[in-house]
Amino acid sequence: MSTTGIDARPPSSIELDRRAFRRQQTTRSTLIAIVSTVVFAVAAWIFVINTPGWSRVQQTFLNWDVAVAAFPRVIEGFWLNVRVLIYSVIGVGIVSLVLATVRTLRGPIWFPLRALAAGYTDLFRGIPLIIVLYLVGYGIPGLGVFPRMPAEFWGTIALVTVYSAYVSEVFRAGIEAVHPSQRLAARSLGLSYSQSMRRVILPQAVRKVTPALMNDFVALQKDVGLISVLGAVDAVRAAQIETAAYFNFTPYVVAGLLFFLLALPMIRFTDWYTARVRRREQMGSIV
Amino acid sequence: MSLIEPGSGPGSGPGSGAATPDAAPVLRLVGIRKSFEGTEVLRGIDLTVHRHEIVALIGASGSGKSTLLRTANLLEQIDDGQIFLGDDDISDPRAKADRIRSRIGVVFQHFNLFPHLSVLDNVTLASRAVHRASRVEAERRGLELLDSIGLADKAREFPDRLSGGQQQRAAIVRSIATDPELLLLDEITSALDPELVGEVLDLVRELGRGGTTILMATHEMAFARDVAHRVVFLDKGVVAEAGPPAQLFEHSENPRTREFLARFTA
């Protein structure tokens, strides 16, 4: 018997009744959601425009002419943020994987490396990013051994330094979440420690922690704006310059919107991916 | 259907036409001792597995069967004794453990296939990573092996799309893809639904006929009796009795063996 015979059978009247009821429930929920959203938005809008300072705030933060005038400079600065982001992601990926792997090494011979990696992650998860930016951005060039590099270079180094500490912990959690029997199976086949790490453990570990990694990526997308404290003319710095020129804060709002638009696809993708992973793991349940 | 080059030709041993064991020892365990946190699990085990021989380890849970297999593959460090693979003392810490493990195939109770690799990549990983075979060559051999167990059409699937029996057969094929000198089977049917046990045991039987040297821990008494050349009964960390299946299962003089076997026939 083929399954098409089963599929072709019309549903019973009881099932049809249940489906009609569920459809009705869905329509009702959607309507309630739309109405409550509109009511809330209108109420919020009315409250804001009736605040005593609204017209002044509108003038200094939401000035269309200033936004248009400042846009070219801000977007030019924003392009620097995007480039710093790309280099940072690559740097963080490499450094954090090395750190995580070092921390999972066994055997007394690796103790110094292991302790160093542990100390590193402790230290840079404990220091505020902005302080690391100042220390790296002004301290390292101050040593006088490196050629003169632009501020964004040292900013990228600082970002990689701090984010690698966080991301390596995420990777380490992933490595430890791979069942030990996988390592046994790999070693039984004659794979060396590093071969089983590279071909068996890490690929599974990365899959397990992908949602957490994407979350850190979203955070990094915003924190690239902090390189402005070193004087790099990124979106934030450009907005600051424009703000001073027009005596108007609208350029900051423009910069903020650009960051938001950059982050939004990743935020949505992260939520979607996390939900999908959860659905897979909780297959066969509706509650 | 031939999975492994036949050894010294078919013989008349037990297990319906299995290759005859010859005198050359493949694995020799001498006085193996192993404790876990003060509990002595193995208390001086002597055991030899000869070429083309199938040896079944039987015994209650906790009798040390799995531990013994793990020590033989250097996944567990022994407290005393010696392990020889061929002529090499592999319990010597100067021995190259990775090299030795690549000479021994292992199949686990829970298959332990790599979930992120296709069935074919699972089977060919050791050839490519350890034996440095080219991908083309490794896949040719891998597909041949999968074809011989009727899983060629599943080669590009991921393991979770296979039934338990198919997964375990793929795991067996993975373990023999590099022609190991010895195959260790650790209760490979214990995690399977009863109706899937047969297909896995048939494959082991097939390997035995082809001359593969096998040391297996098992709870399948009928199977042990049918295919093993020799049965070793482990009790409380020592070899309580060893001999041909007919002797152990039918004419055992050992009260502990009789008591253990009685639980399976009750």
Level-2 CATH architecture of the largest domain in chain A: Orthogonal Bundle
Work out the strand percent of chain A: under 5%
Question: What overall geometry of chain B do the principal axes of the alpha carbons give?
Answer: globular
Shape of chain A: flat
Number of helices of chain B: 9
Please provide the ordered H/E string of secondary-structure elements of chain B: EEEHEEHEHHHEHEHEEHH
Strand content of chain B: 15-25%
End-to-end separation of chain B in angstroms reads 37 Å
Summed up, the helix count of chain A is: 11
DSSP, total strands of chain B: 10
CATH homology-level superfamily of the largest domain in chain A: MetI-like
Give your account of this protein's structure:
The complex is a heterodimer of chains A (287) and B (266). Chain A has eleven helices and no strands. With 287 residues, chain A is an all-alpha fold. Helix content of chain A is 81%, strand content 0%. Chain A is flat, with a radius of gyration of 26 Å. Chain A folds into two domains: 10-48; 63-276, MetI-like (MetI-like fold), CATH 1.10.3720.10. By secondary structure, chain B is α/β, with parallel strands linked by helices. Residues 4-18 of chain B have low confidence and may be disordered. In chain B, helix 6 links the parallel strand 7 and strand 8. Chain B has helices spanning 65-72, 97-101, 119-129, 135-148, 164-176, 194-209, 221-227, 245-250, 255-265; strands at residues 25-36, 39-50, 54-58, 80-85, 88-89, 104-107, 182-186, 214-217, 230-235, 238-243. Helix content of chain B is 34%, strand content 23%. Chain B has a single domain (25-265), classed as P-loop containing nucleotide triphosphate hydrolases (Rossmann fold, 3-Layer(aba) Sandwich), CATH 3.40.50. In chain B, the strands form two sheets. Chain B has a six-stranded mixed β-sheet, with helices on both faces. Chains A and B meet through helix 8 and helix 9 of A and helix 2, strand 6 and helix 3 of B. Chain A: It is found in: Cell membrane. Chain A: The chain crosses the membrane at residues 29-48, 84-102, 123-140, 249-270.
